[in-house]
Amino acid sequence: MMAQQHSIDGDRRDVVILGGGLVGTSLALALARIGVTSHVLDAADPQTQLAEGFDGRASAISTASWNMFENLGLASQLEPYGCPIAAIAVSDQRKMGELRFRPEPGDGTLGRMFANRQLRTALFAAMLQTPQISFHPSSTIVERRRDAHGVAVTRDDGARFCGSLLVAAEGRRSPTREQAGLAIASWDYGHRAIICGLAHEKPHENIAWEIFYPDGPFALLPMLDDAQGRHRTALVWTVAEREAAGWLKLGERAFVAEAAKRMGGVLGRLELVSARSSYPLAFHHAPTIVADRLALVGDAAHGIHPIAGQGLNLGLRDVAALAQVIEDGLQLGLEPGDGEVLRRYQNWRGLDDFTVALATDGLTRIFGVPGKAASAIRRLGMGAIERAEPVKRWFMDEARGVSGTLPRLLEA
């Protein structure tokens, strides 16, 4: 609901973005490309997020998302740090009937794996070099106001930042979304993802593995070799919430032995090369992602299971769509916060966000059904997909993010 009308004054730019993570900074850069200025306010200190070291946190960047980074001029900085995904192997507990997705010659890769730190470093450096973006780290917001004249946010030191449009890119627990009264559908999976980096004896051959167990998926994500030439993989291991503390406290040797058992020796001898961290797995989806002079992007709008590695890519699709509707609106004489601009964004992103969220939730539930009969049925289905090339291509196009109506930023 809109605040009472008042004169919006303060340090004014076109758009105020709350949240300076991967999605928020990508949006600022996408807007700068079309001449739209922005304030980016983030609660964190970037130096802590850009610290040296591989902590296992990594993201799959789809073909479409990579196209966006190329269009934003970031490809040359990122290219040396990305590990191409040549194939995706899907397995039910390493039993017979694996499903493999491998693109046709000329189609390129299925995506690239990046350590999150490398993505942050490139986006942060580009942001600091872009005059259209004013970055404000370590910012605690104490007031958000929206009215017919624009938007304004006030920091705890009294500084005010104003614009035509407010964008919430603050993540799953977005206070801006909550203040605006935008409802979400949500539930807890009762699981936790354990994340770490592994070095291993055998090369991964650029294959990403998704091995499903009744407790949850066990994902092996290929990374570039380290400076010592060791083969590396990022592990995302889903365990029951009630068992997570035990897995995190388990001695390094025992933890690695259990991980090796679950991957069936596919990578040979293993070594833990980072600390283990974890986060709870939950689902949330906001059916309405706009309000007066407000738009939600990324995890503020939707939070999905990491089962298919689509969380960040979904947020980057939000970025590309919002930037395009703002650009198209400017050509018609509409400001970024105009209601017609935001209606176009809602109509474009609402269905896609929901479809992807529903698909990942369904996969999580299907592969979580225990028992030999359920496993046999799943493997029969996987075998049918393996033999049906048109179906396999559809799944690969979805994974690469190249299906449907794409915003211009996502096109090659």
Explain briefly what this protein structure is.
Belongs to the UbiH/COQ6 family. The protein is α/β, with parallel strands linked by helices and 412 residues long.
- Output the structural class: alpha/beta
In percent terms, what proportion of residues is strand? 25-35%
Query: Rg from C-alpha positions?
Result: 22 Å
For the secondary structure, the number of strands is 22
Shape estimate: globular
Low-pLDDT parts are 1-7
- Write down the CATH topology of the domain at 11-82 and 111-186 and 284-366: FAD/NAD(P)-binding domain
Q: Biggest sheet, open or closed, and with what strands and sense?
A: 9 strands, mixed
- Top-tier CATH class of the domain at 11-82 and 111-186 and 284-366: Alpha Beta
Average per-residue pLDDT, rounded, comes to 89
Distance from N terminus to C terminus (CA atoms, Å) equals: 39 Å
Number of helices: 12
CATH architecture of the domain at 11-82 and 111-186 and 284-366: 3-Layer(bba) Sandwich
CATH superfamily of the domain at 11-82 and 111-186 and 284-366: FAD/NAD(P)-binding domain
The helicity comes to 25-40%
